[in-house]
Fold:
Amino acid sequence: MANLESLYEAILKGNLEVAKAVTTEAIAEGIDPQQVINNYMSRGMEDIGQLFEEGKAFVPQLLMAARAMKGALELLKPHMTGAADQRIGKVVIGTVKGDLHDIGKNLVASMLEGCGFEVINLGVDISSEKFITAIRESQAQILCLSALLTTTMNYMQDVINALEQSGIRGQVKVMIGGAPVSASFARQIGADGYSDNANAAVTLAKSLLSA
Amino acid sequence: MNIQLETKPDFNRCMERVEAWFNREIIDRAPIRFHRHNAEYDSVISNSGHASLKDRWMDAEFQAKSFLDSVKGKLFNAETFPVYMPNLGPNFYAAVHGAELEFGEVTSWCEPIIQEESDLSKIKFDKENPYYQNMHALTDAALEICDGQFLVGYTDLHPGMDCAAAWRGTENLCMDMMLAPEQVKKLMELSSRHFLEVYDDFDKKLKAAGMPSVTWMNFPVEGRLHIPSNDFSFMIAPSQFDEFALPTLQSEVKTMTHNIFHVDGKGVANHIDSILSVKEVRAIQWVQGMADDYPVMQHIPFIKYLQSGDVAVIVDLDKQDLEAFMKEISPKGIFLWVATDNKEEEEAIIKRLLTWK
Structure:
């Protein structure tokens, strides 16, 4: 019988091989995929995220956990049908125009994906037009904007203005992150939230979806 | 040193203050540089007439002349020195081993060149590399016209983990630490193998031209100044820093007389005890970061911790925090960096520093 507790441990410790092996067993035994995700895999991601916030885990461990989560999810996907075939939500993410930094943005993308979001990662140096096109095409509920430079952070305001002008601001929640920005900057530019690390970004995204 | 600069008539006295600071001594007041860390990234050169950004970055005469124009007729107060640092961006050292630089307005970067283990053979240090040759041209052009006006330094060199991250990509390097630690060690060794050769090449040229040792922090010393850093390390555990980064740091600083470790924010500060365990590191530059990590007062316990050790400390702060900072902390071993708006403001701050005990 599949030891699902060891699946939780495998995600927490970033052990892809064990995560895939236990997931394969769970599939063979016909265990409900949603139960596997909610009760074991997501819990592993939440706990590694918590350890990260407490300074007890670091980026390499987070990336390993996200990799194990993704690997196990890939195995479950073909077995998720109907109501079970649901990601938590859709996110478009990118680093704003003029800025080429992507470490933090990619980490947030990995964590969101690992925690059950569908993530459309546009990359770096993204214009407001590209963000808008991606939101329209994907029907994403959340837009994550990243910037690492004081010279590019103000472009976040331009993106929000462009969302308003194009009439889709009401359809999408905007989260921002990056070294030079803060919660007060988020309020100032009319964003819906700010997070200063990848784990907090997942928590924020979930809360924005349920708001 | 016998250096006469129109732009810096009190050059020798200011250099003495810097040397005293390295020894955690004070001649008459704590040294101060009127500059904010990274302020150079705020300004963009426009209308240079170059066909591409790359052409502009690599145009040695243009860069030297632009710098001369920017300092001519100016007077540099306190420990703010007129220094030209030939610059192709922070990945220059990675690029002279075979990576290609992409140039933006204010910085440059390179795309990772190591996708798999066999790609390690792509890493080859080459003095004929066009960026390396251009760095000599940038240095030579500045040395041609600097006399009496400004100092010429050596470029910003990032061997070690930041170089390894440039070659391998940040996420890959993080994963390698977990999945292929021996490969990371190999990469770290490659990333520092030619550092001294590069350093010595430019050090020799600059010393032959009568220059002191100076680089991007813009204050000179007699001897061999080096600024080790590891911005990548904000992401990793202290145990990973010790395993992968510490050995290269130890070899990097060995032949230098003045090492200042650039601690870029709280994440890098996680490794402070390991950094301080390297006895050749004589000073720490503390950069508190932006947004919620600003202003400096929240970091007073960390600065006091550094002060209690055997190192000198550079602190970057807002002028409005200066008075509160001086009340909280003694000037021993402190070098202040403060951005100001005018000469009068600078003179008032210098006067105040004379009474800071």
Chain A has a mean pLDDT of 91. The longest helix of chain A spans residues 33-53.
